[in-house]
Design a protein that fits this description.
Blueprint (H helix, E strand, L loop, with lengths): L5 E8 L5 H11 L17 H6 L6 E8 L5 E8 L7 H8 L4 E7 L6 H12 L3 E7 L8 H12 L7 E2 L8 H11 L12 E10 L3 E10 L1 E2 L4 E4 L5 E3 L2 E5 L3 E4 L2 E2 L3 E5 L13 E4 L18 E7 L5 H14 L4 E7 L3 E8 L2 H14 L4 E3 L6 E5 L4 E4 L11 E16 L3 H10 L3 E8 L2 E9 H5 L2 H8 L5 E11 L2 E8 L2 E2 L5 E4 L3 H15 L7 E7 L2 E8 L4 H8 L3 H15 L2 E4 L2 E4 H4 L7
Parallel strand pairs: 1-3, 1-4, 4-5, 5-6
Antiparallel strand pairs: 2-3, 7-8, 7-16, 8-15, 9-14, 10-11, 10-16, 12-13, 12-15, 17-19, 17-20, 18-19, 21-22, 21-23, 23-25, 23-26, 24-25, 27-28, 27-29, 27-30, 30-31, 32-33
Bound molecules: guanosine-5'-diphosphate and magnesium ion.
Guanosine-5'-diphosphate binds next to helix 1.
Length: about 600
């Protein structure tokens, strides 16, 4: 089909405003879903996405739309994630589009992520079709939500389409708006090839599969191609489109969104953001690559059994291909042995990566507590950055320490402003501004990133009864009174358990960690002391009590099936444990700092 009859678009919104559900309705309407695969959130293909009900990866799908007047259009729809950790995925998807459907839940109105995503689209020069969604809800206020879009972002309220992904209301209007308002992709199918890699994954049979947006020229099988950044050359084996499964096609002309396989075996050769061109007829200029995502949260990942080290490395390499936003490098810990220091975009991202490693690659892992990157100035004048608390120098060698700060934006109903401001105060935040948007308030704060890392979002949600939403961006480093808290188990310092914390909070944090650890470390034949120290000085102490004789006796008596059950239970619990000296330390102990009291 000529590019004039192609529309490439994404659906963007705050999390839970109904992107995946609306995508389902569109797919259904355009006959892309057979009765057989009819299930909810069709584009959430990862097992994890279905379980958690969130979208992690952007998933493209090609659709055919016939207008009432008989004109036929090809739609390439790219579903996107909404959580702040995955903004990176969103901006990559947007590079493959000319327009977006910007969804707003009619009962919630504009939220923090609505604003961020709208600006991502505006910055990429995309046409925005505002959709006020979930108008079937009794609490829906479609006009109010449309007016908020106008007041907050400047999108005219009269442009909004009212819809419900649940009932299907408004879907025909949305399809028409896509054709009428979103421009067709530019590009000349005869020009030298220029295609953007916006995603990729590794297929055991075909090698690396690249998701591409063709900007100029045409991609076809047998074509010799070159990757601009790596300079590597390949011959295209297959090209195709998404249904959302992969279907083989004949060619991908300018304007298309599709995939190619080119026998690429080394995952390093294919980088997301790179430009593909024709080897013997290169495009004069590559697409300006994406800004590489900067991981901001770091944590060590160690296999519970040492033999799995290589398996973990292979898994990390493959996963990185599917998720360009995280990185890793080898790391050694006295307590945990050989593992990797991994960088993530946020805590949710870290959790998802660990879970995907364990499920998709069948690994048992121990993760150390997530930490931010600190900048340390030493007494000898050297400045260095460390993302690993274990590497933190001793107090006498430090002149100053700086920590990363964020600009935090919170949208909330005015009733909750008081308690939320108090929470921000506890987290060492300082206010920049406060804006009223109707009956709602936008709070802008500067806060140390470490302070919102763990349980901030949960606390914010519970304080505001679920009404507050947040977003943030990094704004650089500020000096702080930071200390390293060491943790000793059975009188030995465990390097992998060290944490960096603000002086004012060191004691309470040390207390929390040792109490939690004493609770989760299994009992031994002897009592095991757990201590938190600063510079060798003990600030908190707890004890893992020894087995009592009669408890042991009970285990050895009794019927056989009960004993078997007990053994099985022990075996299972052991999977995520690490032997440290004579003590077995479970995963929960390494994440004691995350526990909520
Ligand atoms: P996403 O995070 O933006 O992809 O949102 P989902 O599509 O996963 O939807 C979030 C929740 O809202 C789910 O429980 C949906 O069933 C519900 N939902 C989505 N669209 C509608 C709608 O139009 N009306 C109602 N009442 N609920 C909806
Ligand atoms: Mg979704």
């Amino acid at each position: 089909r000529p590019p004039t009859q192609v529309r490439n678009f994404s659906i963007i919104a705050h999390v839970d405003h109904g992107k995946s559900t609306l995508a389902d309705r569109i797919l259904e309407r355009l006959g892309a879903m057979g009765e057989r695969d009819k299930r909810d959130q069709t584009l959430d293909t990862l097992e994890l996405e279905r379980e958690r009900g969130i979208t992690i990866k952007s998933t493209p799908v090609r659709l055919s739309y016939t207008r009432d007047n008989g004109e036929v259009y090809t739609f390439n729809l790219i579903d996107t994630p909404g959580h702040v950790d995955f903004n990176y995925e969103v901006s990559r998807s947007l590079a493959a589009c000319e327009g977006v459907l910007l969804l707003v839940d009619a009962s919630q109105g504009v939220e923090a992520q609505t604003i961020v995503n709208a600006y991502l689209a505006i910055d990429s020069n995309l046409e925005i079709v505002p959709v006020i969604n979930k108008i079937d809800l009794p609490a829906a206020d479609p006009e109010g939500a449309a007016q908020e879009l106008e007041d907050v972002i400047g999108i005219p309220a009269k442009d909004a389409v009212f819809a419900s992904g649940k009932s299907g209301l408004g879907i025909p209007e949305i399809l028409e708006a896509i054709v009428e308002r979103i421009p067709p992709p530019p590009g000349d199918p005869e020009a030298p090839l220029k295609a953007l890699i916006f995603d990729s994954f590794y297929d055991a049979y075909q090698g690396v599969i690249l998701f591409v947006r063709v900007l100029e020229g045409t991609l076809k099988p047998k074509q010799p191609i070159m990757l601009f950044n790596s300079g590597k050359t390949f011959d295209v084996d297959r090209v195709g489109t998404f249904t959302p499964g992969l279907v083989v096609g004949e060619s991908l002309p300018a304007g298309s969104v599709g995939w190619i396989a080119a026998g690429i075996r080394d995952i390093h050769d294919a980088q997301v953001g790179d430009t593909i061109t024709q080897k013997d007829r290169p495009t004069p200029e590559p697409f300006p690559g994406f800004k590489p995502a900067q991981p901001v949260v770091f944590s060590g990942l160690y296999p519970t059994s040492t033999e799995d080290y290589r398996k973990l490395r292979d898994a990390l390499e493959k996963l990185k291909l599917n998720d360009a936003a995280f990185n890793f490098e080898p790391e050694t810990s006295e307590a945990l042995g050989f593992g990797f220091r991994c960088g993530f975009l946020g805590l949710l991202h870290a959790e998802i990566i660990q879970e995907r490693l364990e499920r998709e690659y069948d690994l048992d892992l121990i993760a150390t507590a997530p930490a931010v990157v600190y900048r340390v100035t030493l007494t000898n004048g050297d400045v260095f950055e460390t993302q690993n608390p274990a590497e933190f120098p001793t107090r006498d060698r430090i002149t100053s320490v700086e920590e990363p700060y964020i600009k935090l934006s919170i949208m909330l109903p005015e009733d909750y402003v008081g308690p939320v401001m108090q929470l921000l105060q506890e987290r060492r935040g300082s206010m920049i501004t406060m804006n009223y948007v109707g009956k709602r308030v936008e709070l802008l704060y500067e806060v140390p990133f470490a302070e919102i890392l763990y349980d901030f979002h949960d606390r914010l949600k519970s304080i505001s009864r679920g009404y507050a939403s947040m977003d943030y961006e990094q704004i650089g480093y500020r000096e702080g009174d930071l200390r390293k808290v060491d943790i000793q188990v059975n009188n030995e310092v465990v390097d992998a358990l060290a944490v960096i914390v603000h002086e004012d909070k060191a004691y309470s944090l040390g207390r929390k960690i040792v109490d939690k650890m004493a609770e989760v470390i299994p009992r031994q034949m002897f009592p095991v002391p757990v201590q938190a120290t600063i510079g060798g000085k003990i600030i908190a102490r707890a004890t893992v009590k020894a087995y009592r004789k009669d408890v042991l006796a009970k285990c050895y008596g009794g019927d056989i099936s009960r004993k078997k059950k007990l053994l099985e239970k022990q075996k299972k619990g052991r999977a995520r444990m690490k032997q440290i000296g004579t003590v077995e330390v479970p995963q929960e102990a390494f994440l004691a700092v995350l526990s909520t009291e």
